[in-house]
Amino acid sequence: MQNIVNHIKRTIEKAAREPEDHPYDLGDPNNQKLLVNLAMSGTDLYNNLIRGQVTGDGPLQVVANRAVFAPFDFIYTLSVPKYTAKLCDQAKEALSNGKCLDCFDKSIDPADHICPFGFWGFSRIIERFKYDSDHVNDQTSDLLVYSEPASGRNTLNILQNTIHGSSERVNFNDPNLRHKVSDFIKTTTRASTVETWDDWVLQTSATEPETIVLITHIQKNSEFNANELEIGGDVLPQSHFGPKHLLKDKKPFAIVIGCEVDNVNNQGFDVSSEFLNKGAAIVITNFTKISGDEAAKIVMRLVELLKTDSGSGIQLGSVVLKLKQQLLAEGIMSSLSLIAYGDADWIISAEAVSKS
After folding, report:
1. 8-state DSSP, 314
2. Is the pLDDT of residue 336 over 80?
């Protein structure tokens, strides 16, 4: 499976690194070819990993018995496409509305068309548990997939009190983009924007945030073989990230977007795992390299959807699914690498906050 995972990662990352060949147009020939490529890998995953054991519609819960990246978002359940397959005619409209429009004959095999809703990641809510002994004591296989939602969900309040930081690289194409992101976040929540990790610690202590919005650059210190997180030009070794940066008793909701925050080849030791291991209830992240402006676009759209859609309570996966559908409809191919980890028992709520 790791070969397929690496192929999926390289395919999406290539599009993110070559925007001139993958413009913000879902119907662009290169973007269509990318989706055909992923659908063929997704067919292999369905035939050889799932083997028909999970059918029907509705939410899925994925429970891992060890630190492993499970590429269930890319499982493709429709007829495998031909090399020359084209995107279905109403794909953009269907994604924008969140519902397949059945615009071609899906009985043809191999298929002349590809439908985004053939991918689980664009048609089903997927909730992921990273390794947690409370959930897998009786599990004998590496992965379990449940096709029914969890019951007895608790509410996780978000966007009440937020801490935000961003990499200098966000400004690569727009020198004002970091300020635009900060200003936008401050319109949706009480937010503290920080420029250094020392300020992050001070604001975490002073404001006790339950929401983290972080656009970070992940770099490798080759001398010490250490991941480093950068905001505002200030660098923090991943191993230094601890209780001063994230308050475990707040069960924080964390949006952490950057280059390979979720590392498919280093599960359990990557940055997203660090946040979960330190006590974050939910982490929304990505597993490929990404440009600063695309990271900013994704974060602002996600915060907007969380604020407008969650109201007094909604399943997190519903918001993530809608986000991915909307971004793909706009041809933002890096959105294919978005992923959410966390306890499936949470319902998120972003009730309006009165400004003081």
Report:
1. E
2. yes
Of the candidates 280, 287, 294, the residue with the CA atom closest to the CA atom of residue 262: 287
Region at 13 (left for phi over 0; alpha for psi -120 to 50; beta for the rest): alpha
* d(C-alpha 300, C-alpha 316), whole Å: 16
More confident residue, 120 or 67: 120
DSSP 151-180: SSPEEEE-SSEEEEEE-GGGGSS-TTHHHH
* Burial of residue 166 (number of CB atoms within 10 Å: 0-12, 13-18, 19+): buried
Provide the β-strand partners of residue 216: 258
Confidence (pLDDT) at 65: 65
Structure tokens at 320: 């993530």
Share the mean pLDDT of the chain: 88
Distance of CA 27 to the CA centre of its chain: 23
In this predicted structure, the answer to whether residue 11 has a pLDDT above a threshold of 90 is yes
Looking at the chain, the domain(s) classified CATH 3.40.50.1460 span 154-349
DSSP notation for 129-156: EPS-HHHHTT--SSEEEESS--SSPEEE
Q: Which residue has the tokens 């390979």?
A: 260
Which candidate, 321, 268, 306, 293, places its Cα nearest to that of 142? 268
- Run of H or E residues at 24: none
Name the class of domain 154-349. Answer: alpha beta
**Max alpha carbon distance in the chain (Å)?**
61
In this structure, the chain runs to a length of 356
Provide the pLDDT for residue 147: 55
Burial 178-199 (b: 16+ CB within 10 A, else e): beebbebbeebbbbbbbeebeb
Residue 247 has a pLDDT of 97
Q: For residue range 269-305, what is the model confidence (pLDDT) as tens digits?
A: 889 999 999 999 999 999 998 999 999 999 999 999 9
pLDDT at 148 over 70: no
Q: What are the CA-CA distances from residue 6 to residues 70, 264, 287, 288 (Å)?
A: 12, 8, 11, 10
> How would you class 69 by CB atoms within 10 Å of its CB: exposed for 0-12, middle for 13-18, buried for 19 or more?
buried
What percent of the chain shows pLDDT beyond 90? Answer: 69
